[in-house]
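User: Here's a chain of 225 residues. Predict its fold as C-alpha cells.
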Amino acid sequence: MKLTIQELAKMIDHTILAAYATDDMLKEHCEIAKQYNFKTVAINNAPVSLCKKFLEGTDVLCDAAVSFPLGQCTIETKVFETIDIIEKGAGEVDYVVNIGKIKSGDWAYIEDEMQRIVTECNKRNVTSKVIFETCYLTDDEKRKLCEVALKVKPTFIKTSTGFGTGGATIEDIKLMKECVGDNLKIKASGGVRTTEQALAMIEAGASRIGTSNGVAIVDGYKDMQ
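Assistant: Prediction complete.
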C-alpha cells in the first residue's frame, strides 16, 4: 500500500466532539482542516451552520453526528436530526444505531431505522455512515448488523463513537471487511492516534479514519517519506 500524503489526508475525518467545544475552538479546528485538506470536520450537529461558514470556499465537508453518542433517540428524532443537519450544511451524516434494540434481537427495528435515515441522506446526495459501537457487540451481532447494512446500503459502516468502552480494532475492521467486501466502505474511529495505527486500519480494510489526531497522523506520514 502506497498513499500520497494528500490521499491519506483525504481519508481523515478531523474530529472535535467535546461538549465544551467553543466557537473559537471550532474555528481553529476548521482552519487546521483547511490547511491539511482533510475530508471532513466531524462535529456534533449544533455547530454545523457555524462550521459550514468557516469552511466556505473549500471542499472540506461538515460531517455531523446524529443521536450521538448513545443512539437512544427515537427513529423519528434521528430522522429529524438527519434532515435538519443536512439543511444546515452537513455533507456527511454519522448516526449511532440503537444498541439496545440489537441486544434485544429486534433486527426489524434496526433495519427500519437504518433504511429511514439512509433514505433521507440518499435523497439529498449526502454520505451516510452507520456507527456500530463495536465494543458493546458480539461478533455475531456485528455480522448480523453488516447483513442489514448490505441490504440497506449506507455509504459507510463505522466501528465506534469514541465514547464507548473501546474504539476501533484491527480485528473488527477485518471482520466488517469480510462481511461487506467492496460493497460498503468502512470507517475506523475511536482510539486511532498514530500514523502506524491509521495505516494498519487502512491495510485491514478501512477507507476512512475518524480521529482528533489527524495532524499527528499526516505529519508522521510525511516523516516516513
